[in-house]
Design a protein that fits this description.
alpha/beta; single chain; Aldehyde Dehydrogenase, Chain A, domain 1; seven-stranded mixed sheet; 39% helix; 16 helices; Aldehyde Dehydrogenase, Chain A, domain 2; binds NADPH dihydro-nicotinamide-adenine-dinucleotide phosphate; 2 domains
Length: 472
């Protein structure tokens, strides 16, 4: 079976992807499991060498990969950045993981004759299900540390953006990693089959699909690490540097056409600086250009998934109907592909979908607040808890507010820093996710189960030591 694939710049169905049927997927899983034994036995240094070969192969396939990603997403610069970013991520993990797992014996606290040592046992087969917004980055973000841990990995990219899978598979083959790293193609049914085939699943995508994956994983009693949607707030306190706040707000909302989990989707501004902030943001947003007709110019790419454009239209219409004012943008532009210019709104309330539901587009709704407590309450009034941002006159003040926000990562005096900085461990709060941090060393150690070796250095205790009359 084949699925037609839409081109986000033209709207044409100009590509087809062959679906991996369930029987084939199960065969691939069996083959990966077999190869995993040798992969694990290679040791971390051997796996580091293999992953470095993959980084080199990705460099050789840079043009093909970036070209395919450009077709998938309708943007060229971010496509190239995705390839560079993945190579950087491999280099970073390879430099960090050797020697990270302590294996030394530890003397018992309660009984010094007994000592114990940890043994780190990787999951045999890890499944990765990725979304369409950063197709390469999010297919490999969990796969790289899982491979270094000694797991085999099966990846299912989104059917919306599958073109990059061909050049990626070629690089994997060239690097000699195909026995332990496989790509399968298809839609939700393929994703479901993958969950049935693996020992641990890493899912990046929406909350509704994440729930389905979690239920399926729970039925199989396997862990599901979920990285889901967000509704990230930005709070700007009186005294903040307004130019910096405008710069960060615009980049945080508009970069990648807002199609990023950590995009800013709600802005709360202290009442005394509200009007000035809005005026400066409108001036800055008015200069943002679509990357159409020339893909080599502009800051804003097309909406990758046409159904997402319907959500954006609905949220704008709902906000307008309930009294919001649209100061810039506001209409999806149809050039075959669909673009939305930065859409700044004021007069919004939490009764509007644009303030409650994930937008995943370049819409910037702004609300004034009077007290800091009110700003915190508004920011926390959400089902999501992915990330947030605070601007203040100084970092201590920003951090004090940040600590009160229900979000897994808080950018201080900037926005959406989790897109640029991957070293800080963080979890997703509320409906935004489940499981240990994918960032920091936990992003690696989560792919091991801990086995305890517990050694008796004295003599085993006899049963008589537990007899009723024994002891006092
Ligand atoms: P979806 O949840 O629609 O899809 C994600 C992946 O799951 C796709 O590969 C999809 O396949 C697959 N899938 C669909 N149904 C099932 C199923 N029943 N079982 C298993 N897999 C299934 O998300 P989107 O692709 O629309 O991505 C956008 C979402 O991703 C946003 O909510 C965004 O916030 C979130 N996201 C979260 C990030 C984070 O780190 N927290 C980062 C980036 C995005 P197919 O597409 O082929 O149907």
């Amino acid at each position: 079976m084949e699925i037609p694939v839409r081109n986000p710049r033209t709207g044409q169905m100009d590509h087809r992807v062959a679906v991996t049927d369930t029987a084939t997927l199960m065969d691939i899983a069996a083959r990966l499991r077999l190869a995993q034994k040798g992969w694990r036995a290679l040791g971390v240094e051997g796996r580091v060498a293999a992953l470095r070969r993959l980084a080199d192969a990705l460099a050789r396939h840079q043009e093909d990969l970036a070209g395919a990603l450009t077709m998938d997403t309708g943007r060229a610069r971010i496509a190239r950045m995705e390839v560079d970013g993945v190579r950087g991520s491999i280099a970073g993990w390879c430099a960090t993981v050797p020697g990270q797992l302590p294996e030394a014996w530890i003397q018992g606290r309660s009984n010094p004759a007994i000592r114990h040592a940890p043994h780190w046992v990787p999951y045999e087969l890890v499944g990765v299900i990725s979304p369409w917004n950063f197709p390469l980055t999010l297919s490999l973000i969990d796969a790289i540390p899982a491979l270094l841990a000694g797991c085999a990995v099966m990846i299912k990219p989104s059917e919306v953006t599958p073109r990059f899978a061909g050049p990626l598979a070629a690089a994997i083959l060239e690097a000699g990693l195909a026995p332990v790293l496989a790509l399968v193609c298809g839609d939700g049914a393929t994703g479901q089959a993958l969950v049935d085939a693996v020992d641990c699943v890493c899912f990046t995508g929406s909350v509704p699909t994440g729930r389905k994956v979690a239920v399926r994983a729970a039925q199989r009693l396997i862990p599901a690490f979920l990285e889901l949607g967000g509704k990230d707030p930005l709070i700007i306190l009186d005294g903040a540097n307004l130019d910096d706040a405008v710069t960060a707000a615009l980049r945080g909302s508009v970069l990648a056409t807002g199609q990023a989990c950590q995009s800013l989707e709600r802005i709360y501004v202290a009442a005394p600086i509200h009007d000035e902030f809005v005026a400066r943001l409108v001036a800055a947003a008015s200069k943002v250009r679509l990357n159409f007709p020339d893909i080599g110019q502009g800051e804003i790419g097309p909406i990758i998934f046409d159904r997402q454009a319907d959500i954006l239209r609905q949220q704008i219409a709902d906000a307008r109907a309930k009294g919001a004012m649209v100061l810039t943008g506001g209409e999806v532009v149809d050039h075959g592909g669909l673009w939305l210019p930065p859409t700044i709104m004021t007069g919004v309330t939490h009764d509007m979908a644009v303030m409650r539901e994930e937008t995943f587009g370049p819409i910037l709704p702004i609300m004034p607040f009077v007290t800091v407590e009110q700003a915190i309450a508004l920011a926390n009034d959400s089902q999501y808890g992915l990330s947030a941002a605070v601007f203040a006159a100084d970092l201590d003040q920003a951090a004090a507010v940040g600590r009160l926000l229900v979000a897994g990562a808080v950018s201080l005096n900037d926005a959406a820093l989790t897109a640029l900085f991957h070293e800080a461990p963080k979890q997703s709060f509320r409906d935004s996710g489940l499981g240990p941090s994918r960032m920091g060393m936990e992003g690696y150690t989560r792919f091991f189960r801990r086995q305890a070796l517990i050694a008796q250095t004295g003599r085993p205790a006899p049963l008589s030591a537990f007899a009723e009359e024994a002891g006092g």
